Prior knowledge:
By secondary structure, this protein is mainly α. It has four helices and no strands. Helix 3 crosses helix 4. The radius of gyration is 14 Å and the shape is globular.
Amino acid sequence: MKKFVIVGVQRTGTNLVQSLLDSHSAICCLNEVFLLGTRRGRRYEGPLGYPHYRERSWRRRLGHRLWRTRQVRAYLDSLYATPGFEA
Length: 87
């Protein structure tokens, strides 16, 4: 699987690029999977998001507190292993 990340500032067209790529059947695009929450309570609620991954076991919650870099890498490895997509 080819891995890619779209990075940009607000109002530059990143959502348009994401939606165009996501319309292809062999590409899986997820929007803001690391949106953990803000003062307004916004949070990525999808089943493939990092908050969902982190909350699924006590070891992952502890890993998020103690070994965040390793935890995020493990999450990304599992995310990139999503079957049925080439990118």
